[in-house]
Amino acid sequence: MHSFPFAPGHGGRLSENAPRGAARAPLGDAAARYDAVRQRSLAICEPLAVEDYGVQPIVEASPPKWHLAHTTWFFETFLLKVYVPGYRPFHTDFEILFNSYYDGIGEQFPRPERGRLSRPTVSEVLDYRDYVDAAMRDLLAQDEADIVDRITLGLHHEEQHQELMVTDIKANLGLNPLKPSYAAAPRGNGGDDCAASSDALAFTEYAGGIAQIGAQDGDGFVFDNECPRHRVWVDDFALGNRLVTNGEFAGFIADGGYDEPTLWLSDGWRWQRERAIAMPMYWRSVDDCWFEYRLDGERPLLPSVPVAHVSHYEADAYARWAGARLPTEAEWEFAASPWAIEGNFADDPRAPHPRPVGGDAMGQLFGDCWEWTSSAYGPYPGFEPLRGALGEYNGKFMSGQMVLRGGSCATPVGHVRATYRNFFYPPDRWQFTGIRLARTINRS
Amino acid sequence: MHSFPFAPGHGGRLSENAPRGAARAPLGDAAARYDAVRQRSLAICEPLAVEDYGVQPIVEASPPKWHLAHTTWFFETFLLKVYVPGYRPFHTDFEILFNSYYDGIGEQFPRPERGRLSRPTVSEVLDYRDYVDAAMRDLLAQDEADIVDRITLGLHHEEQHQELMVTDIKANLGLNPLKPSYAAAPRGNGGDDCAASSDALAFTEYAGGIAQIGAQDGDGFVFDNECPRHRVWVDDFALGNRLVTNGEFAGFIADGGYDEPTLWLSDGWRWQRERAIAMPMYWRSVDDCWFEYRLDGERPLLPSVPVAHVSHYEADAYARWAGARLPTEAEWEFAASPWAIEGNFADDPRAPHPRPVGGDAMGQLFGDCWEWTSSAYGPYPGFEPLRGALGEYNGKFMSGQMVLRGGSCATPVGHVRATYRNFFYPPDRWQFTGIRLARTINRS
Amino acid sequence: MHSFPFAPGHGGRLSENAPRGAARAPLGDAAARYDAVRQRSLAICEPLAVEDYGVQPIVEASPPKWHLAHTTWFFETFLLKVYVPGYRPFHTDFEILFNSYYDGIGEQFPRPERGRLSRPTVSEVLDYRDYVDAAMRDLLAQDEADIVDRITLGLHHEEQHQELMVTDIKANLGLNPLKPSYAAAPRGNGGDDCAASSDALAFTEYAGGIAQIGAQDGDGFVFDNECPRHRVWVDDFALGNRLVTNGEFAGFIADGGYDEPTLWLSDGWRWQRERAIAMPMYWRSVDDCWFEYRLDGERPLLPSVPVAHVSHYEADAYARWAGARLPTEAEWEFAASPWAIEGNFADDPRAPHPRPVGGDAMGQLFGDCWEWTSSAYGPYPGFEPLRGALGEYNGKFMSGQMVLRGGSCATPVGHVRATYRNFFYPPDRWQFTGIRLARTINRS
Amino acid sequence: MHSFPFAPGHGGRLSENAPRGAARAPLGDAAARYDAVRQRSLAICEPLAVEDYGVQPIVEASPPKWHLAHTTWFFETFLLKVYVPGYRPFHTDFEILFNSYYDGIGEQFPRPERGRLSRPTVSEVLDYRDYVDAAMRDLLAQDEADIVDRITLGLHHEEQHQELMVTDIKANLGLNPLKPSYAAAPRGNGGDDCAASSDALAFTEYAGGIAQIGAQDGDGFVFDNECPRHRVWVDDFALGNRLVTNGEFAGFIADGGYDEPTLWLSDGWRWQRERAIAMPMYWRSVDDCWFEYRLDGERPLLPSVPVAHVSHYEADAYARWAGARLPTEAEWEFAASPWAIEGNFADDPRAPHPRPVGGDAMGQLFGDCWEWTSSAYGPYPGFEPLRGALGEYNGKFMSGQMVLRGGSCATPVGHVRATYRNFFYPPDRWQFTGIRLARTINRS
């Protein structure tokens, strides 16, 4: 068992000097960072047909075109209109069309109808991006703290939307009966066959105590919801050394997991019964063999690859079936904080997909799949949202959603941290969401 | 008062020799007719951006791309697969994707989700059209009756979809907050101002008796739902000489028409209350002046232009407010059958829109707006649907819908007849649907 | 074939002197008639437990308590408040609570929530009835035409609600898993066994021509929707001599009728698919034998009894399967008008239920089951609704509903006429609704 | 500021010897305890009319009759069928009808339709109770631990339903436009007038540290969800000394609280906008003065009485408006555990209602209103549900709901504890749910 690194009351910080990715880059190169992030959004769309930019296959997703415009709207609204005297907005209607949810800014075009807007065209949206990027030049050269902070926030915001663009593109193409491929095959997934199994899951034990979680001053960029750093009591626990695999999840299905009500939360049981859900999103059974739609097309399911696209309900039911449970976010952060932020992130032009992991060491904490925790998303003690309309960024969603940790294969490199808190509703599963098991250790 | 042209029992037919439009063209030029109709579908889409081909702004409408593919699927399914030995379908999945409602053919992609398919792309759909058009060449040269009949049906089918393409494009663009223009202004609508009024409505009286309505052998192409020709008793009636205008309908609104329950059918009252509907589709009130979205953009409402885009409920309520009623389909056909099929049809590349009419003569029976009748859509006595899956073309919709007559400014020239029966649900209003008043004449 | 009794143009009236039932009783005994009708409502409720008065098992139905109060509200609102100076309403809130749909009177308590009102109690509703009945004494003695007409209307209105009370009670008890009996067994249904069959259906042919349908002055009480009497053209047709039986409908099911889309109207197909409907309401299959809930409890299905509780969609699909169609309302009235109004009506305290009929003669035109016609419910030519709020009685429902004719085993004796037009939405089936077949006769 | 009573690491238990109410009564008098609890359910219904037993005004509530039967079903299912050889159930259909949510037991009658069952009648349900109570006699004399534990659970279960009966009766009567009174006025609410205000809210500060919350062996009866007792870290905090009052909440409304999006959680904003909610349930504004429906009828709102019937969303928005927040469940239990379980509980036949409190001392922790916490309802570390179908009692609801603490004026005396965890969905507000404020103390 690993020993508990910091004694209660020491107030020690975990992983103080851990690398934090590009967010921590010196601010002198703000323009380069800005250009790189903005360019990355376009690169994600590069394999798309014009038609692919506009559709909204499920109400939770948005068209790629909308993401391209909304991230631009963010810079226009929170920087150009505020800090550039005499700035003329590109198009007055865009304020409503591309406002996502900022009631403090004003009215919004209804989210479920984003997919019915053929205009502005892709070309007009790209013009909008160029127009705003040009106007941003001057601001990128300034070193006023407020401006720098907002630019940084805008870039992290765009990185979040880059992940959504990938998952929304996957929903767009994957729910199309033609099941088109977005891009070439990901590396490292070959050679597996439909019958293969993976190594047994190992657990690492952790001694509990008073831990500290959350981010603090000097950590570089963090979102408001990661703060403040604060003490929590953590009981002894054990954490699975890797994500649950497709093969393991297929075992749950084969064992009748979706038909056994005692494995399910009441809300989850109703959810899967009413929607006739009996497998992860993107799975399909053909002649008793599983297939999975990936960004490179529909393929035979690889058993040793982490299962992805499961809801919180499915993750929770699987854990109960496996005699385990989901970790709390405190347990997860406690275990993850000493590690370098390395893993299967979206650093590659090829179609992102989770990858198998070998060996018994604790692995896959970062990248591959967001890991559902058992923790409802709420404010940390002493949480203070940002001031003004930007205060709506995170705080108002602290109800009804669950925390996910660790990033995924669709997350830009350098975007996540051990303290990073992602959040989705329990039924959501169009993100790369997976399962890490935990166990309570009884010392009686 | 016009006299009743045929005495009861004479069995006389009205307008036996009336011109019937292009459908009656000699069959020798089948290929030319085929090319012309197919080409016209593409011409309608010519002003569109690629993005405009894919969206489905309301569930009743379909994306233009879907119309282009579905009309092609019709020829592939009912002609190529049946009559061309060894024909290889363009894409097996298209059978499901572009089957509209033919249960006899098989499964269909869900209609409300047509707008979420980014693939096939427009380019692929155009390839599909080329592929099928090429394969049709041989069949177009044959004179076997079944083949000729099905080709003729397929072309009339495509013309119906051409009208839907126009109205669906209008919904796509008109419900977009940017309100883009589809094409240049229609002719003949200039010069009107917001306060202008139109001439008083005149009524023409008709003496009733035993009439005959419906189509019969030798009439050229007709749909199965127009047959058989049969006797009906028509009481004396009077018919408005023109369509109700925007200005008149604005008077109904100004008089509180939408707020007076006694003017409305019970279903209609609930419909407008639940949806907060208080004006025709595409109208907007800005600073106490009405504006209307047309295919050439949003414009000040022209009072003398016929009101369009009203539901059956609104047409019925307006008629009651005006001390009149809607005509039955028998009355309409009785009055219309002697007339040449001339009017404001979609014969022009410019954006179709209803046009004002002058004078006291009976006018606008054909073109401008489909005219809601008070007749529920049902089978004529002795109605026989086509055999096989094509029997689903018209017959299975004879429930819950209302008959409309006369065609609209979006109807291809030569497509309609005096016997032509269009049908929509009472709340539908994205077609160019207007109002002609009728009155019962009491001879006590 | 029967000959056509009136030549075209004669203007002859059918069945001018036919007996019309109690509605035609001399008005001198208004009080006795009033008492009898009012008492009959209470007699229907006599077998009920207090709990049975309040529930609303389906939104289309209303609690018996509500019917008892609403029929009382009708007299209070349209007579006592109008004609009795200084009349003090029993309870001011009752105006809203027991107003069914008269927008001209004012606000209404939401219909779907009638079943959630435990107050007023049954006892309070009976007090309300007593209070209003006492106040009506004076008016019953008057012979002013308006008052007499409104009282007559109020009594016919209450008879309509008596039929609804029976069918709503049946839904209440029949949808309860305990399937309690309302009253003792109906006569004449014994001795049948599960395998029995009935005689083949015979058709009577009618020569068409100009008929007259509808009611006219001097006919005694009729509803506004039956007027005016008017000419219609009727083609030659044939009518089934009896209603379709349970055994015949079971044959439709056994033949896969519910699974064959070409038998169904498009709306009907969607209706039964979405609700997984595969048999008439109240049927249940146990060990391959059919059972039917009747007002005397669940019993083995009797094959020779008319099928009841089918929707218009089911009636229409059955007719198509049987190579026939539903009659128009004109055909039905034309055939029915010469007959005396005799049949299986609700003249008996025992649980009403359809009864088998023997012989080849035209039978069951009145009573047993309301007969779905193929006619959409609309205004007769020259229809004039009653003035004021009472004008909402019938006219505003002339949209989306289908006409039914002939009355049922739950209809009070003397309530229906050959001209009587009942109407329900196509999916409705909690009334005693059945099927009579018709055929077109081709004389080519 | 209060000092923190137990140092970190001591493992000390809070309030080890606190009285726990009737649940801790010696088991020798099991029969007397059984009779008392069972009788209390009947006493709650004593003021009802027969009609009041059956209605279900909102889907979350159940008819009183259903509660009377379901609590009986609990004893029949989990005791009589298990431990009494040859026990014959009262009615086989009742297993489905009165099974609330135990999938392990079998099928259930749909919850939203409980209000449409007129049968069994109240009288039959009382027979059911008598039958089961008689059969329970023998088991009540036994001292086998499993039997004793299940009887104890059954009685606590019935007490929970007693509270639901009161709140469901309130919804039944309070949503009825007649607003009938359930029982005579509660004590201690007189004399207030519409303009009165209450004393300013005081806060008590608590020093944080490692606390222990939850129940442990030897505590007497507790539910599984209160276990195990475990350590939590609590930061310094302050807690309001009383519940928020009607007057204070009226101030929030007057200040536009319902119209200011930045005060609301995103889910809560959508909730109140879509439902047009602008005041607590049971409030009504008449001529600019507030009225509140209470179990003794509609009354002018008393400003010094605690506000009740607010959702979690409203509680959270109010707290934000007041510059405070809701307490966590750990903070609440930490503050409450030293106190005796005394307060305004349902110990009185008169209509329960919250009461004002005076003075600056910490008050109203128990009774009056359930207090919304900011804690999502989840499993304690090491939580183990009961075995078998009883494991569904609490555990499967640990998703999407929020914890409430302290009991209400409708909670039976002796039922709650400092460790007691109630839970409802954020929008629920038909319980007596109120607001206690908390604040974070920053010691920088």
Describe this structure in words.
Four copies of one chain form a homotetramer. Chain A is of the alpha+beta class and 444 residues long. Chain A contains nine helices and twelve strands. Chain A has helices at 30-45, 64-83, 94-97, 122-140, 145-174, 246-254, 266-275, 312-321, 329-336, and strands spanning 203-206, 209-213, 230-234, 237-240, 283-286, 289-294, 297-300, 370-376, 402-405, 422-424, 433-434, 438-440. In chain A, the strands form four sheets. Chain A has a four-stranded mixed beta sheet with strand order 10-9-8-11. A three-stranded antiparallel beta sheet of chain A has the order 1-4-12, with helices on one face. In chain A, a hairpin with a 2-residue loop joins strand 6 and strand 7 (297-300). Chain A is globular, with a radius of gyration of 22 Å. The two termini of chain A are 17 Å apart. Chains A and D meet through strand 3, helix 7, helix 8 and strand 8 of A and strand 3, helix 7, helix 8 and strand 8 of D.
